[in-house]
Design brief:
Length: 243
């Protein structure tokens, strides 16, 4: 499903309005995001491209509630992400948003299954539901081809295997939105292609909305729509934002 200018409010799962983000660097104020407007449809896959320093990762962090904008608003369905308390936002983020980063961010002291379980641990009733959640984590590992590695530690896995664990972890809570920031940036082309196949197949099969930051045009073309960032502003493919 591609998002169009005629999309109804019911189609929109994530919306950003006039989002700015700036940082103080010594005596200088650095403006990274300069008024981003964005609407993403339910089940849509959107890629964000742009040169290094254009603001892509910063935007993804703001959309996911990991970083607060200097100005502007982000809504996920009826929820105002930055109108919440920090504690409520953390709770909401853990249930509604899955993250896949270039670095895998697996906890080395936990085994693979435990790493996948992490997003659910704050919600689960261990007495009555631990078995169900462990079975779900095992099923996700099977879907990314790592069922036999469930008891291994991250350091025993290759980079591609670790990223597949990170993908399974991102999907553990059946999030509305999956945010992926250069998820194949640390991988060779063959391994990266396998990761992307899993990412697109699993998010589409489950109806997740996907927002993917990438430098690779071939990867971007696999999405429903491509946005380009330039100097902290965003525009559709073929129409770069005005300076």
């Amino acid at each position: 499903m591609s998002m169009t200018a005629k999309a109804t409010e019911q189609d929109i799962v994530l919306e950003a309005r006039d989002v700015h983000r700036s940082f103080q660097l010594l005596r200088n104020r650095v403006h990274v995001l300069r008024g981003v407007d964005l609407a993403v449809g339910r089940g849509e896959a959107v890629s964000i491209m742009g040169a290094s320093g254009a603001g892509k990762s910063t935007l993804l962090h703001v959309l996911g509630g990991l970083d607060r904008p200097t100005r502007g608003a982000v809504r996920i369905e009826e929820h105002d992400l930055f109108g919440m308390s920090a504690a409520r936002r953390t709770e909401f983020r853990s249930r509604s948003i899955g993250f896949v980063f270039q670095a895998y961010h697996l906890l080395p002291e936990l085994d693979v299954l435990e790493n996948v379980l992490l997003p659910a641990m704050r919600h689960m009733n261990w007495v009555g539901q631990a078995g169900r959640y462990r079975a779900k984590a095992a099923d996700l590992l099977e879907q990314v081809g790592l069922k036999e590695r469930a008891a291994h530690r991250p350091m025993e896995l290759s980079g591609g295997e670790q990223q597949r664990v990170a993908l399974a972890r991102a999907l553990m809570n059946d999030p509305q939105i999956v945010l992926a920031d250069e998820p194949t940036g640390n991988l060779d082309s063959e391994t990266g292609e396998m990761i992307l196949n899993h990412l697109f197949a699993l998010t589409r099969d489950r109806g997740h909305t996907l927002i993917l930051v990438t430098h690779n045009e071939a990867v971007a073309e696999r999405c429903d729509r491509t946005l380009h960032m330039l100097d902290g502003r965003i525009g559709e493919a073929g129409a770069l934002p005005a300076p």
